[in-house]
Amino acid sequence: MDGNQSIVGNSPETQKIRALINSFxxxxxxxxxxxxxxxxxxxxxxxxxxxxxxxxQPFVAINCGAIPAELLESQLFGHKKGSFTGAVADYxxxxxxxxxxxxxxxxxxxxxxxxxxxxxxxxxxRNITPIGSNQLIDIDVxxxxxxxxxxxxxxxxxxxxxxxxxxxxxxxxxLPSLRERASEIPDLARHFATMFAPxxxxxxxLSTSLLQLxxxxxxxxxxxELSNTxxxxxxxxxxxxxxxxGIDASMLPSGxxxxxxxxxxxxxxxxxxxxxxxxxxxxxxxxxxxxETEELILLAQGLDLTPDERPSxxxxxxxxxxxxxxxxxxxxxxxxxxxxxxLKIQRTTLIERIKKYELGF
Length: 361
Prior knowledge:
This protein is α/β, with parallel strands linked by helices. The chain folds into 3 domains: 12-176, P-loop containing nucleotide triphosphate hydrolases (Rossmann fold), CATH 3.40.50.300; 179-257, Orthogonal Bundle (Helicase, Ruva Protein, domain 3); 269-356, Arc Repressor Mutant, subunit A. Helix content is 45%, strand content 9%. The chain has helices at residues 12-24, 41-50, 69-77, 94-97, 113-125, 151-156, 162-168, 185-195, 208-216, 222-236, 254-257, 269-283, 291-300, 313-331, 336-343, 347-356; strands at 31-34, 59-63, 102-106, 127-128, 137-138, 142-147, 171-174, 205-206, 241-242. The chain has a 5-stranded parallel sheet. The chain has a two-stranded antiparallel ribbon with strand order 4-5. It has a two-stranded parallel ribbon with strand order 8-9. A hairpin with an 8-residue loop joins strand 4 and strand 5 (137-138). Helix 8 (185-195) packs across helix 10 (222-236) and helix 15 packs across helix 16 (347-356). The radius of gyration is 27 Å and the shape is globular.
């Protein structure tokens, strides 16, 4: 999301973040923003800056993961002319540019470990030394960092320094994914439609059914993916009211296309799944399965029992299903939508199974 945008949405999650920003803004303490890629971390960093006493001073952003390691020190701390091949003039560096303002270190989790040591020293001493210079330059900046990585794991794997983490993570902000605040999708879609409307054209509008499809989609690319989708539709269908049957399915996100038929209509996947589940359940009734099949299933469970000791096949299948759901929930960190994708079943069906086996609902 671009820096000239404002925060959109009134879900409880977004209201909580706004309250955090209001409490963080007057401080000079470092802020660390975490969340999946595409959640708008720079937008929130700018909001913190804009609400702070430094609002009239520079806000300087740099993506630590997008700059080659050998150039990152120069970009951050500056260099003197002739200090290395290609240094044809003095360069101030981002920290000096941000003096009296805020510096946003995006994707801090991608910073090489040798640079982490140098950054830690700068944060401790509050001065920098440009490459090729012996002069210390005092800096007054507020540091806001962001990452999509799990820095706890990065520290355990010795890829991120604990001392730097604690220096940066004084005030933490976690941004939920778009699928965790799906109620905001209609407002965000309208916001982007207005933003990307071509000159002399009214913004596109989305039908109720199309908005519902947008709300039910997981948006793995989060707000950035939604923004890109609305921009694409604004270019292709400028000024129009859009419905499923009027959109080329290839212009929608690939995962969303699977729920749209060749004629542009939404497939009744719930009904299809219920039919499949019913036929599958019928086939797996003990009366429909021969003894050899039952033997194989029990052996797959590690059960070598006599016929009298064996549980019913239906009970065995229920146990297998329950164990599979437990493992998938663990792998998905409790996220039902992700778990349903792993198991390749509908989300509503999964919720029914979770309730049936008392696994969390």
